[in-house]
Task: inverse folding
């Protein structure tokens, strides 16, 4: 008795030890989360390779299915289809099942709790729970499809060959459009279900009626199945004509179900269309967000007001990808009409900004709404989601400058105070106003640009006087050497360029391009 | 006599501009159509204030604005602002009219209405975003030069008669000696337009021309002293 007790306790301990070890093993955890990431995170870099491979497997096995209808299948194709494809699908299925939840973690938690409450450690409860969870996962439609897709085409039995088509259904997982389509239909579950019940009711009634009326007379109606088949073909307005009523009573039934069929089809169509028109905007917006998440870096412009408009208009061919967010539908429409990508969203909400793939891309947020409170809120929101997000915020009231700094804005724009300063300069220092205005608005003649000297740049080691800035019509302003050192304005002309120097100069765009071409400096 | 500036509108922009004009030692005359805004102006210590109905030409005519006065139209309502600019231009043909606009369309309207200078509220800021994204270092430096956050800034100076720069070709001066850079100039002989040094045109500096330089504040002062006679300096700054 005691021995048995010891034994069972020992078993439990062993289970716990294994679970604990796995749960605390870094490599186990890392592998698991990496696999989960690749399988389930759309933003993962490697996911698209895995996806393309699976899609290739599916397409090729379907191609083999079609090919073999008329041709004998070579042996290697058979091997490929039965062993390789099935094996990979099996592995995929098992991995998905494995990463779905964590048994080890459940066991260790249970152990901890048991320890804490000084009750007996019972590993079976968490294991049971976790297994039920896994079973529920297996019962999901997508998992069932995955499971059925593993079965290789069993050629001798023709019907079983169609198992390959489950592999096609697997594609659903990779097509966002179909997924969205399903979601839309799921939203109209109630209407569609009502319709289906009504359809079944009419088909059954009409079918039975025809069966009763014509089974003896009509040579084409031999069973109830035939009658039901006729009824469905008729109500759907397909009307093959292989079975048609011969008695007047049967014809009357036909007429009735044809009329109800038209009504039902238009009802179904309207339900689906209205579901889509309701969701269309959302679908489009998701599309835009997905598209932009694929780029390495992009801008999120919050608020489509005058500042945003001026910004977008200023430079043709903005190098950055961007997306405009605005709370106001009217402004969103205006932006779309102007030819920009815009969606209606409130950037001050956590959900809105967290839709963007913060981990994989460099995001710059421009808070350009005309409300300072809103801009501060968006800044805070962005910085809470990830401090890596760069924020350029607009402050209408220059007294709020410090608040923006505290909220974490990387750059602060103050259009009002800039405009006021410019106006004052225009009155009191007209010449300087013109110069500064042209420089600040980046007029072609006075573009200030910078060139960073990376390793291997031919300029490193040469002196300022060796370079004929004047001939290139450039005004060499100075060197920024390291971000914390003071700016070297107009340094003496025997100064030597060093690695990492940022050269600041002014001139026409064409001069800057010429300079870059000559010294092989290109922006990275 | 002190230079006069007529400031229409004491709202969003008017307040900050009035403050700046006061520092520049202008005699500021504030005109408003809103009683409440005018009260604020009085509280801020401006004595020359006047309630005005800008839609009445007779009231505008009674202001007696002279040709070398500066007129600033920064009413909060942009429609009023355009209307005001138009009325003022029709009454006072030669005075210097300035305005602030918040959109491209308003800028066009103000220019059409006859404003000499229209400052676009967002143009500078919008360009700054481009600059931050494309050339962060240069932008940071420029910001410093313009906003007095660094000891480097822009300065303009007019060349007086008898200055050592009078009659010298731009290319022949070695500005490096003074540790300042010549950015550009207004050549009185040619036009009133500002010419950047990078335009690549040879220029002779004459008395009456205005040059704009960039440099450290103390170097700029030093340079100015060598260009302008000290007793003239008071007048020029």
Result:
């Amino acid at each position: 008795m005691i021995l048995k007790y010891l034994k069972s306790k020992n078993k439990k301990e062993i289970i716990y030890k294994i679970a604990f070890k796995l749960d605390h093993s870094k490599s186990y955890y890392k592998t698991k989360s990496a696999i989960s990431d690749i399988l389930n995170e759309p933003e993962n870099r490697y996911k698209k390779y895995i996806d393309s491979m699976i899609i290739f497997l599916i397409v090729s096995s379907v191609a083999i299915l079609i090919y073999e209808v008329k041709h004998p299948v070579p042996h290697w194709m058979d091997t490929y289809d039965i062993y390789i494809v099935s094996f990979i699908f099996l592995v995929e299925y098992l991995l998905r099942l494995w990463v779905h939840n964590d048994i080890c973690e459940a066991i260790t938690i249970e152990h901890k709790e048991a320890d804490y409450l000084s009750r007996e450690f019972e590993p079976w409860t968490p294991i049971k729970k976790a297994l039920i969870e896994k079973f529920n996962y297996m019962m999901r439609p997508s998992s069932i499809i995955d499971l059925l897709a593993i079965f290789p085409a069993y050629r001798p039995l023709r019907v079983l060959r169609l198992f390959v088509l489950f592999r096609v259904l697997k594609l659903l997982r990779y097509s966002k459009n179909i997924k969205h389509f399903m979601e839309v239909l799921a939203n109209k579950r109630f209407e569609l279900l009502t319709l289906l019940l009504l359809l079944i009711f009419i088909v059954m009634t009409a079918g039975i009626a025809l069966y009763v009326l014509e089974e003896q007379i009509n040579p084409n109606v031999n069973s109830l199945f035939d009658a039901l088949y006729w009824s469905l073909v008729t109500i759907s307005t397909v009307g093959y004509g292989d079975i048609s009523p011969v008695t007047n009573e049967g014809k009357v039934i036909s007429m009735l179900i044809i009329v109800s069929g038209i009504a039902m089809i238009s009802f179904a169509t309207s339900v689906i269309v209205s579901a889509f028109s309701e969701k269309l905007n959302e679908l489009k917006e998701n599309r835009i967000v997905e598209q932009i998440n694929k780029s390495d870096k992009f801008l999120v412009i919050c608020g489509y007001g005058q500042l945003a408009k001026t910004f977008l208009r200023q430079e043709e061919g903005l190098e950055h990808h961007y997306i405009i967010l605005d709370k106001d539908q009217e402004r969103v429409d205006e932006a779309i009409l102007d030819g920009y990508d815009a969606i209606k969203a409130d950037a001050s909400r956590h959900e809105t900004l967290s839709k963007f793939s913060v981990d994989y891309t460099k995001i710059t947020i421009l808070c350009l709404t005309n409300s300072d409170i809103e801009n501060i809120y968006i800044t805070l929101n962005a910085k809470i989601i990830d401090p890596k997000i760069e924020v350029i915020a607009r402050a209408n009231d220059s007294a709020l400058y410090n608040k923006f700094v505290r909220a974490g804005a990387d750059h602060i724009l103050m259009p009002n105070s800039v405009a006021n300063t410019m106006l004052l300069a225009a009155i009191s220092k007209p010449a300087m106003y013109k110069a500064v205005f042209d420089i600040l608005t980046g007029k072609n003649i006075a573009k200030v640009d910078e060139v960073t000297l990376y390793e291997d740049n031919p300029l490193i080691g040469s002196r300022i006087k060796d370079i004929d800035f004047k001939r290139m019509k450039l005004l060499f302003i100075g060197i920024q050497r390291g971000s914390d050192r003071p700016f070297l304005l107009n340094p003496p002309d025997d100064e030597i360029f060093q690695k990492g120097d940022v050269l600041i100069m002014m001139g026409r765009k064409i001069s800057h391009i010429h300079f870059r071409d000559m010294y092989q400096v290109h922006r990275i | 006599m002190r230079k006069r500036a007529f400031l229409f509108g004491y709202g969003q922009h008017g307040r900050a501009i009035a403050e700046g004009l006061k520092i520049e030692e202008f005699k500021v005359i504030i005109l408003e159509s809103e009683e409440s805004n005018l009260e604020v102006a009085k509280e801020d210590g401006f004595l020359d204030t006047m309630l005005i109905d800008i839609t009445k030409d007779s009231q505008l005519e009674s202001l007696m604005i002279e040709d070398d006065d500066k007129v600033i139209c920064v009413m909060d309502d942009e429609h009023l602002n355009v209307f005001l600019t138009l009325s003022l231009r029709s009454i006072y043909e030669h005075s210097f009219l300035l305005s602030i606009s918040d959109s491209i369309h308003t800028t066009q309207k103000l220019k059409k209405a006859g404003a000499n200078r229209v400052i676009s509220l967002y143009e500078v800021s919008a360009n700054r975003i481009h600059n931050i994204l494309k050339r962060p270092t240069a932008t940071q430096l420029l910001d410093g030069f313009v906003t007095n956050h660094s000891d480097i800034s822009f300065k303009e100076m007019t060349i007086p008669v008898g200055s050592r720069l009078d009659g010298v070709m731009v290319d022949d001066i070695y500005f490096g000696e003074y540790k300042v850079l010549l950015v550009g100039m207004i050549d009185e002989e040619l036009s009133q337009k500002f010419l950047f040094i990078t335009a690549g045109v040879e220029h002779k500096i004459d008395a009456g021309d205005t040059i704009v330089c960039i440099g450290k504040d103390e170097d700029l002062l030093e340079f100015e002293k060598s260009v302008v006679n000290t007793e003239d300096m008071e007048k020029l700054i």
Observations:
- Chain B has two domains: 4-123, 132-236.
- Confidence is low (pLDDT under 50) at residues 230-237 of chain B.
- Chain B touches chain A through 71 residues (CB under 8 Å).
- The two ends of chain B are 16 Å apart (CA to CA).
